[in-house]
Amino acid sequence: MNARQQSILQVVIDKGRMSVADLAKMTGVSEVTIRQDLNLLEKQSYLRRTHGYAVPLDSEDVETRMMTHFAIKRELASRAAALVNTGETVFIENGSSNALLARTLAERGDITIITVSSYIAHLLKETPGEVILLGGIYQKRSESMVGPLTRQFIQQVHFSKAFIGIDGWQAETGFTGRDMMRADVVNAVLEKHCEAIILSDSSKFSAVHPYPLGPAGRFNRVITDDRLPDACREQLLRRGLTVDIAPHNRSSAAPSPAKPPDVALYRSESIPTR
Fold it and tell me: Residue 45: its pLDDT value, please?
């Protein structure tokens, strides 16, 4: 790694996201050269490229994460929205797939959304749906509320379904998150004993992170795509979860998140809890 590439890596880590154009201006080289540098840094697992931007690995920025696997996340959001009935109140946690789901539901105008994500609340400001943003300590990097006050607010509100994002799953660890404070928020939601639904693309499965979400038996359903490894699907089914699979190869033709999905595109599997 040369001095320019070291400088690029440092500014990407510091800023959270940098465009190719901005990096070219900063370093005084062409965008072609910047793309070559980014390709090298990505191959060496120093950062990740997304649609004209460079981001650190495991970026917390919701908008940045939304750009990764966007089409399938839109498909998952449409599938999840089909589970929500008129007049329901639902909790939607932080995350890129959840942000797309929140937008889909809010545009219907007949759902109340409770969230801890200021990013989601801002995304919905022009929609007809009602939004309740819970308070707490503002975690700037994830644009989310965390901490003991947030836990207290969760205890004071009621909802029929909760849509949760994850960072990892393995049979030995169950669902896991990479942030302790956000994991605590999820666990507070699970204590409500509502219908808990995991919304995540398949890239999160087989990964492991430090903080447990669960136990897995507190969750009812997983919505993911058909790149989920067969072993993971079988492990989830054995734990009594319903697994909804959206076909990855048709995600480019996915409907707009504002419209209800074609339920025929999906496969749902479940086995009884033992």
Answer: 66
Burial class of residue 83 in the structure, from the number of CB atoms within 10 Å of its CB (0-12 exposed, 13-18 middle, 19+ buried): middle
* Closest residue by Cα to residue 196 from 236, 165, 225, 227: 165
Q: What is the dihedral of CA 141, 142, 144, 149, to 10 degrees?
A: -60
Residue that has been written with the tokens 């060496």 in this structure? 44
Q: Which domains does the chain have, with CATH numbers?
A: 3-57 (1.10.10.10), 67-269 (3.40.50.1360)
Residue-wise over 43-71: b if at least 16 C-beta within 10 A, else e? eeebbbbbeebbbbeebbbbebbbbbbbe
pLDDT tens readout for residues 217-239 = 899 999 999 999 999 999 999 99
- 115 touches 93 (CB < 8 A): yes
Q: Is the pTM of this model over 0.90?
A: no
Kindly report, residue by residue over 172-197, the tens digit of the pLDDT.
Answer: 999 999 899 999 999 999 999 999 99
Cα–Cα distance, 145 to 136 (Å, whole number)? 5
- Mention every residue, 6+ apart, whose C-beta is less than 8 A from residue 88: 111, 112, 159, 160, 161
Angle between helices 31-43 and 20-27 (to 10 degrees): 110
Q: Which long-range contacts (CB under 8 A, 24 or more apart) does 63-71 make?
A: 63/96, 63/119, 64/16, 64/17, 65/95, 65/96, 66/96, 66/99, 66/100, 68/96, 69/201, 69/203, 71/251, 71/252, 71/254
The secondary structure element, H or E, covering residue 35 is: helix 31-43
